[in-house]
Amino acid sequence: MIDKLIQGIKKTGAPIVVGLDPMMKYVPEHIKAKAFKAQGETLEGAAEAILEYNKGLVDAIYDLVPAVKPQIAMYEQFGIPGLIAFKKTVDYCKEKGLVVIGDIKRGDIGSTSEAYAVGHIGKVAIGANKIAAFDEDIVTVNPYLGSDGVQPFVKVCTEEDKGIFVLVKTSNPSSGELQDLECDGKHIYEIMGEMVNKWNAPTIKDGAKYGEVGAVVGATYPEQGKVLRKIMANSYILVPGYGAQGGKGADLVHFFDEDGLGAIVNSSRGIIAAYTQEKYASYGDEGFADAARAAVLDMKKDISDALEARG
């Protein structure tokens, strides 16, 4: 699956993933009004609104980027209707040819992780049938329960040609409370990077540079990113924290390899809620999708200019 992601990045020239994190406050009023008229101010109405919002966004940007990243919590808050909207969003994006990264951040004891892996990137056995449930292409994984929480995902990756991004150095301000601690002369995030290498090695196909086990490293920590790029030379890096969290193109250059590959940068509300920003305010609520497209193009240029300046 990493190969497919790389192909998409090369085709679009945009190492960008759009985070589909549809908080209700981001959904334009005309979309909410239509959904609430049909379904009422209910969980079903909210789910219908976020699905239509997502479709509008995807229609506007699917030719510009290789991937999207729906954050499952934004859907789970609406209960079962929200999860149905999540699944419909995954399917719609895949119909458009996008790689879907399910931002689920799962990780538990072995048997539970196995169920998570099967449910999201594998196939569940039902009698004589094996059926994909959510069927994302790649998912995010929390490794802090240890190897037995990650190995079930690695197993499914090899069986189903799927991928994972393991949390290594996250973009949130308090990540250092744990991830920056030192143990035997190394930071925890460095040790985690070495563990990613171990999990990734068996998934690297003959002749390929990158395996199916990637890493999450926040754009808000460029110096740590520089260190981790060297440690995890054969892992793709998912980089959250661009835009609304403060990351910018100049912060990202060390996440990429010498070929301008090796990383994919996420922006969520900076794109999907672009119409609420002063820069894109002229598009208005009705033009939310066009504003998102403009924001993607601006982000693409920012990253491209930074990589060009790097030389």
Structural key phrases:
alpha/beta, 8-stranded parallel barrel, TIM Barrel, 12 strands, globular, single chain, about 300 residues
Q: Give the overall shape.
A: globular
Distance N to C terminus = 29 Å
Cα gyration radius (Å): 19 Å
Order of helices and strands: HEHHEHHEHEEEHEHEEHEHEHEHH
Average of the residue pLDDT scores: 95
Largest sheet: 8 strands, parallel, barrel
Provide the CATH top-level class: Alpha Beta
How many helices in DSSP terms?
13
Low-confidence stretches: none
Give the number of DSSP strands.
12
Helix content estimate: 40-55%
Spatial sequence of strands, sheet with the most strands: 1-2-3-6-7-10-11-12
Instruction: Please tell me the CATH architecture by its name.
Output: Alpha-Beta Barrel
How many distinct folded domains? 1
Q: In CATH terms, what is the fold-level topology?
A: TIM Barrel
* Structural class by secondary-structure content: alpha/beta
- Name given to the CATH homologous superfamily: Aldolase class I
Proportion of beta-strand residues: 15-25%
Describe the structure.
The chain has helices spanning 2-12, 29-39, 43-61, 73-76, 79-95, 110-121, 147-160, 176-179, 188-200, 222-231, 249-252, 269-272, 288-310, and strands at residues 16-20, 67-70, 99-106, 124-126, 129-131, 138-141, 163-169, 182-183, 186-187, 213-217, 237-239, 263-267. The protein has 311 residues and is of the alpha/beta class. The protein has one domain (2-306): Alpha-Beta Barrel (TIM Barrel). The protein is globular. The model has no long low-confidence stretch (mean pLDDT 95).
